[in-house]
Protein 1
Amino acid sequence: MIARLGDGLSVLARLGGVLGGDGVSTSWSAYGDVYLPQRRPKGTVMVVHGMSPAGPNDARLIALCRAVAAGGFRVVAPRFDSVAALRMHVGQIDEIEHTISRLADDAELCPSGRVGVLSVSFSAGLSLIAASRARVASRITAACLIGTYGDIGSTLRAYVERDDVTSYGWKIVAANFVDTVVLDAEPIRRALIVSALDEWHKRVQPELPATLAALSRRDAAMVRAILDDRGARRELAEAVLARRPLFCDFGSVVDHVGGVEAPVTLLHGQDDRTIPCDQSRRVHDAAIAAGRQSRLVTTPLLTHGDLQWSWRTLAAVPAFADALGAWISEAAVDAGPGRPQRLVTLGQPGSATGAWAARRA
């Protein structure tokens, strides 16, 4: 317990910039970027980037890779072009599965033949579905998902109905599936992607107005409706659920988590406004119901893709670091299997954090 807490605190400190990723060297392989610790690696971890245009070059992902490598792992961060291009399709699950299999077969990068998986955001769900497949399930030491979605239907409905959820995820979904309800939808798709990139880049001067001005009246009106009209958003969401059963069924994590053999650690920001934290709860509950090993920590330390340090979040550090350290222990190739964990919600009365704070006081 003490050792894994120490490991988790060390990685968390490096991730937050308190400590540097000292001794970490970087190189490139056929799979993508490789991060190597100074000492002999205790295992190999594949990190799957989220729907960021920067892919594995996202500064936050680089910090994550360096922190895990500094914690003693050989880290491999592939680039998935369609994910970086903000595309969504079930074939991405095949791509992740294939990459896990190839990496596990690589005697140089993965001498043990087993690999840990760490993934973020929408890709975290895809990665867990890939990890449930028979070809790779037994070759994964441990899976850590940060800010995952759980099932397509409830995520879409949150984008449509909830005012506390940002529009970035909705813009990507709408761009990918607007052709479900509109013919000749490519100009609309491109405009929605421009709007998503305006939000992602936090552009002071958004590019969407000029893009809309170049569209036909019909297409510009449709873009505005999808972005601003709840009724239009609801219509598109329901059409996706009704007419894209392959995507919705194959892409729902809760329906596949029972096939995952490795222990699963779920980390999610309490106030995540891109993918609500109840999505990770759904995955956790489904895993426990299927008799699988799962731990869930919801925490004020995370937003969606960032750590947020403040006096308010300091009390949340130990439980978050302990869960991270547990995943590190499980991901090491000489570690034994983990054990099922109960849900811990940080900052709530009676939680592990509260107990820790009481002992410290």
Protein 2
Amino acid sequence: MKKLTYILFFALAGVFLYSCESDIEKVQVKASPVAPVLTVAESITLDRDKASDSLTFAATEADFGFQAAITYYLEAAVAGTNFESPIEIASQELNPVFKMTVSEFNNALIQQIPESQTTNMEMRVRAAVNSSNVEVSSDAKQVTIRTYGPPSLYLVNDAHGQRLVSANNDGVYTGWIYTDGTAFTLRNGDNDKIYGLTGGVVTENGDPIVLAKDGYQITVNLNNSTFDSAVSSWGIIGSAIPPYDWSEDITMVWDFDNNVWTITGDFVQGEFKFRKDDDWAVNFGDNDFDGSLEQDGANIPLSADGNYTITLDVDNATYTVTKN
């Protein structure tokens, strides 16, 4: 009897499974899904004055062989990188036609590529079936794209991308720079014109600008062709610092990698403080000797003679003293 019960159970289970299988529509991805086809211009120049204008990037729909919930991604990458680090411009479900403003497109690009320059790029549309690893991409389209940033004058041949900015887009450019004494010119990011300083006057294709090694606050007025610079840097002064009598600052050097001021030298047992622009109006000391600085704070002690590296982080009002 027990044997007959088992037979009946398995027979009924087989009927049930066959019935369920017949009720489920089998979903199978095409062996070669049809990828989207993107249409894009060979050259795109983005204009700050047209930031609110509309852009459209159209692609055809992907076909995976069944009614799929597809997310489309519009991507860009520097030409020749094989999309190793793609820029995701936009993504949306079920619709391979992307619409956005010039500003939105520009802002997405300048997260990875330079402002106010022309870059050889590739663009594509990637289609992915939601909740799966199935995806296809359109062929990459070659396109040169010129981006924009705020109205800027860039230091030519400067490895650190320093610039002056016209906050009001009125032809007056200001900013802080640090120079090691190397001569430089200025490139207008909007039209690539080069400006120099000839006889104290800002002129197109003028002579290179030469400033002594230091930090400077600079103003360039293209409306009246004037150039103004004022030293804006930090230094250390004290009985531990040459000439050891609180009479003269040693100017610190700007560290672009760590965004701090730094100085390395032979100092003696004594005290020191940080000063801005060789003046006591802005000076930092350490009241609690805890590495945190205060305006008009206490003198910072140096306990022994030696070679030291001293750093100053103005933004966070902190410093370090390291004996080498």
Protein 3
Amino acid sequence: MSSTIIATAVVVLAVFLAGRYIYKEKKKGSKCIGCPYCESCSKIDKDS
């Protein structure tokens, strides 16, 4: 029982942190979140 609650809390925390990261990156204007070449990506020029 206790291990189920802990596992659920860990999964919920991971989903929350991932969602927060995606939100912050989109707010900054990133097109390809997590891509190391985001600043020089050709998608940025095409979408503008």
Protein 4
Amino acid sequence: MALSRTRRDTGMNYWPGFVDALSTLILSIIFLLTVFMVAQFFLSQEVAGKDTALARLNAQITRLSNLLSLERTGKTSLEDEVAHLRASLSAAEGERDRLRSAAEGAQNADTGKAEVGRLGSQLDLEKEATARAVAQIEILNQQIGALRRQIGALEAALGASEQKEKESQLHIADLGQRLNVALAQRVQELSRYRSDFFGKLRDILGNRPDIRVVGDRFVFQAEVFFDSGQAVLRPEGRAELDKLASALIDLEKQIPSEINWVLRVDGHTDVRPLTANSPFKSNWELSAERAISVVQYLISKGVSPQRLVAAGFGEFQPIDTGTTEEAYSRNRRIELKLTEK
């Protein structure tokens, strides 16, 4: 048992603290990445919707462009037809004038008059056809103007959509920056309360060899609370937990409610297997039951359940990889860590 030992650690192992600090940093980075991924997911949904709208607008512009091309082709054909009719009209008028001159000098005046009448009728028909063609060209010009106005409106809508997308991206970037600042402030504030809490615990528990501060956590040798292979709290362990419960109740009053913190109680064992008559199936189960026993006792002393977490790590997180009895004793432990949910 660690309580009966007279040997003390000859040096301080800073490696677990470094690992925990690095783990906290990695968890923070993972959390930030998760937030950015969620933000990117919603942004991609919004951009996908805008891409669909842009595709529809582009398709409509293509259809309108094709229609405009067809109208222009039709206009060109009509203009060619009008030019042809005007040429025919000029030729007919020239023929009429020639015949009229010939009719005036002909001996048979009645025959000349009949011919001139037929040419006049033909000229009237050609003038009427020309007028109809000109009217159709005017209608086509009006339609082309309307199409151009519609294309201009669609281009304006595309420009507004692109501008809105740029504004959304800037807004999301600003939100991400503000979130980073808020998270950094929360982490810094919780670190201050953690330092105050651990300082108070040092004063309460005193300088004991079986209770150490490693990085950002308190480490109790398992023998402080439990007999070998058991998960029932010893009377001496309850006395130590009474001190811890008092400090936690004071801490709850000090930390602002908007900081979402918990005290995590971690159970650890050494690597050696349990005995055949052990009530537990594995070291993992033993470590979890020990953590739960500590949490339940703290709750019975008035600590809020929502501020406590019990976790069992079995033999899989050793702080000493040696195979000596001293190494095994160091690995059998209960750790307390003040952290965010």
